[in-house]
Amino acid sequence: MVINSKTSLQEVLEIIKKEGKTVGLVPTMGALHDGHLSLINFAYSYCDTVVVSIFVNPTQFNNASDLEKYPRNVNNDAGFLKQHNSKTIIFTPDVSDIYNDKVEAESFDFGSYVDFMEGEFRVGHFDGVGSVLKRLFDIVKPDKAFFGEKDFQQLMVVKKLVKITDQDVEIIGCPTSRNEFGLAQSSRNFRLTDSELKVAELIYKALSKAKKMFDNNSIKEIENEIVNMFKDEPAFELEYFSIVKENDLIPTKIKEPKQNYRAFIAAFLGEVRLIDNMALNY
Ligand code: PAF
pLDDT for 12-32, tens place per residue? Predict the structure, then answer.
């Protein structure tokens, strides 16, 4: 079922909630793929009803051409979901449903979660993400909302968002869905040619290498190795490789005992910017 307006969605959900059913939300920007499907399946393992929102959120793009080139095809998305799970509710709000007449990001205090990596290279991005999700949570009022660990920094930010805004929704992180060669599923992969898709596997190889090296090498040694792997592949331009402590997402040069560490990568393949991350010691 595809619902285009906020009021129609709320009417449908009111009936569902009155029946005592739980509602899960999977927020997306469309161009649905197997990664989204795995989030939706995850959501069904917790909730009776699943709403998938499709909204390309203008306030989270800090690059106009990225926003313009973002793949959009709601009919394809609806067909794809119908094939896999026809009872899913697809919510496709328009800009005024979300922002009324003021299409602007609110500013949030996400602390150190947004000081580095995506927060540093896409300034304002997480305020945009926070703004749209705050509004989507207000409209849908889901019991739980589901986010992929591929955007791990976003997942941490969203957990903080619901604390700051005191919204009554549980945020569930779901494992990254990958193709058979390890490449993380992403709507941006649709913009890559077949040969670029092969090259893109380097990101997973680099993260796996970092994980393998983690116990017996210094952070500096790991960083040098990964930077060199990318230097050997001229099609790629590495934007950052960072090893961070999971609890604050601040890049670190030393390893402390009893801490969880993650490695994060952002790299350009032509005009397409890809990101991924991996737990290193847990
Ligand atoms: O991860 C995404 O696709 C977007 O950032 C989200 C969570 C749908 C917010 O627009």
Answer: 999 999 999 999 999 999 999
Our measurement of the distance from residue 180's CA atom to the centroid of its chain's CA atoms, rounded to an integer in Å, reads 20
The CATH-assigned architecture of domain 2-174 is 3-Layer(aba) Sandwich (3.40)
Q: What is the per-residue DSSP string for 239-279? A: EEEEEEETTT--B-SS--TT--EEEEEEEEETTEEEEEEEE
| Cα separations in angstroms, 124 against 45, 69, 273 | 34, 19, 17
Annotated catalytic residue within 26, 27, 28, 36? 36
In short, whether 60's Cβ falls inside 6 Å of ligand 1 is yes
**pLDDT score at 86:** 84
Query: In CATH terms, is domain 187-277 a member of 3.30.1300.10?
Result: yes
Cα dihedral across residues 209, 264, 72, 41: positive or negative: positive
Does the pLDDT at position 252 exceed 90? Answer: yes
**Could you report the per-residue pLDDT of 132-165, keeping only the tens digit for each?**
999 999 999 999 999 999 999 999 999 999 999 9
User: Which atom belonging to ligand 1 lies closest to the Cα atom of 28?
Assistant: 8
pTM > 0.85: yes or no: yes
**How far is it, in rounded angstroms, from Cα 84 to Cα 160?**
32
Q: Determine contact, residues 168/96, Cβ cutoff 8 Å.
A: no
Give me the chain's average pLDDT, please: 96
**Quick one: tokens of 166?**
């005191």
Q: Where are the domains of the chain?
A: 2-174, 187-277
18 phi and psi, to 5 degrees? -65, -30
Tell me the CA–centroid distance for residue 77 and ligand 1, in Å.
Answer: 15
